Amino acid sequence: MDYFEICIRQAQKEIREILVSLLAEEGFESFAESETELKAYVPAANYERQKVEQLCRDFQVEFTEQQIPDQNWNAEWEKNFEPVLVGNKCYIRAPFHAPGPEFSYEIIIEPKMSFGTAHHETTAMMIEAMMELDLRGKRVLDMGCGTGILAILADKMGAAEVMAVDNDSWAFSNAMENILKNNTTVVTAKMGDVGVAGEEYDIILANINRNILLQHIPEYSRRIKSGKLLLSGFYEEDLAKIRETAALHEFIFDRFRTKNRWIVAQFKK
Questions:
Q1: pTM score
Q2: Cα 251 from Cα 64, distance rounded (Å)
Q3: Smallest Cα–Cα separation from 40: which of 18, 59, 60, 24?
Q4: Average pLDDT over the chain, rounded to an integer
Q5: What is 84-149 written as a DSSP string?
Q6: Domain end residue (candidates: 77, 108, 141)
Q7: For the chain, what is the domain count?
Q8: How confident is the model over 132-160, as pLDDT tens digits?
């Protein structure tokens, strides 16, 4: 599958953050950000140039585009992929990096075009929040699993059963590859939406985006009789709406953490 890369230059940080959220709603799957530019990636079949042009006009920024074949993308992603250490306990690396046996959890992620490498604030914060929970013997759902990183961590933290679900074929394939690389024993991956996720869980993890989370909260409530719900992929200003919707479906707001305006919110039933 080919991808389009768009590169937006000289946009202020606040504008880049808003553009990430808006582009995600238009099907963009991965983002790379520096002090001077934002790069965003979308499957070529889903690329709608007119919408990108309109967004850039609205924010008075310019963009360039290029189409990236699979093999070129993977080489580029590997070249820029660095190991990540979260909370001094969870070490995330590619197969070509040196092992880190001194850390509590080591996760190997094949660097391809799936979301979830802990380079982004939301994934790192989800990992931090997970490491504060007791997952031993729990049934866990990782909804919108991307690389499968959260599902793999749940396995390493002693979960009894883990379901990883994503509706993107590329992400599903990458998650399956990573599940095998990490020798997980309790993770099952399925491609599809929340409808394929099974019936009852103790903990649900969902790092997606605001609109999808709001749609899925009733389904999450149906699948948790008593347990925890961790949500991310949205901004501070969205928290009130997320809390309101969760409360309507019997979730009690527990706590949140934030970084660069991104949020991880934890609820309980």
A1: 0.77
A2: 44
A3: 24
A4: 90
A5: EEETTTEEEE-TTSPP-TTSSEEEE---SS-S-SS-SHHHHHHHHHHTTS--TT-EEEEET-TTSH
A6: 77
A7: 2
A8: 999 999 999 999 998 999 999 999 999 99
